[in-house]
What does this fold into?
Amino acid sequence: MAVQEEVQDGHLEYYKRHNISPVRYHAESIEQHFSRRDSLYRSIGLPPFSFRGARVLEIAPGSGQNSLYVASQLPETYVLVEPNPTGRRDIELTYRIHEAPHTKPEIRAERFQDFKSEQLFDIVFCENWLGSLPSELTLIEKLAAHVAPGGVLVLTVVPHSGFFANVMRRLIALRLVDPNDDFDRKTKTLRRAFGPHLQTLPGMTRSHEDWIHDCMLNPHYFNVALPLETALKAIGTEFEALATFPRFATDWRWFKGLVGKHRAFNEHLLAASRRNIHNFIDHRCVFPERNVSENHKLENGFRDLHRSARRWQEAFYQSDNDALSELNDHVAASLSLIAAELENVADNFNDPVREVLQLWTKKSLDVASVAQMKHFKALFGRETIYLSATRRL
It folds into this structure.
């Protein structure tokens, strides 16, 4: 199939075409896996008792490994909506070998676009699937509509600054591989290039191959960007932010004043995110909050870079060399702006950006130059932010 035809399909068709479900979890033990999930859920306001006897809906559960923890907390009902046949096979295998007491989930082999339910759910999950395309924002609205009053919606948001490092890796990947190579050959090339990058990540729980398939070879990867403001608008004013992980918002207000319009949980969280744009860039670093106006230019730089990256990919697939030449300059200009702004955050904080700018402006790229990057190699952002929100009673 021609690359351009594949781009016109969605995530699901990409996964089905290559018979993949690239989200499999590798853990030393089920106890360790459950401990990680428990740590995450309690951090967003969902301790174990939240699930007991609850009605739970999860969209796009992938391999189903994460759902095991929820099922083991014995919800009343647990519905998994997974249209990918490879994902469903993984789910069935996951539960077949899980012997501890759990609620058997109902697996719905359909797209969420086609999903219907007469009941509302106490908890609705959707991790690492929906972005900010208009069609996907409609699906976020549909997710919210399935939450019962007083219930909780859990989404993942992807800030542009946190997405930055992998946006650049995806652009570099497009330049590294021959579009005419088969899927396996592309995978091997990118493993050699980005394997040393991934080895810097502590606690990585999926294989390098799955990461490459899901991020570097997935033509829809750029679409997963979902700024917090966009997500909050999509779920609507019926929902109030409960928590995020990582936690970047403190709240020193007096609880007795949190009534009526002064509750303002969404506004409070959004303001905190804007003061922390720079803290999403590198998972290794935490800096003091900055003034929103100081971070505004920085956020615009990351947003413009993401926009140029999407346009660059489109021009690449269309073999539009004139557009590519112009967009090369746009990407470089955004990188230069970001590097200049980061000088104001901390000494040497912009070293990875300057390095990737230098690489980007080369006429051609090779695997060795990417694999041996000194500063950018270990730069991975806080790309995935978990957001929980409650529906008003």
Notes: The longest strand covers residues 147-157. Confidence is low (pLDDT under 50) at residues 1-8.
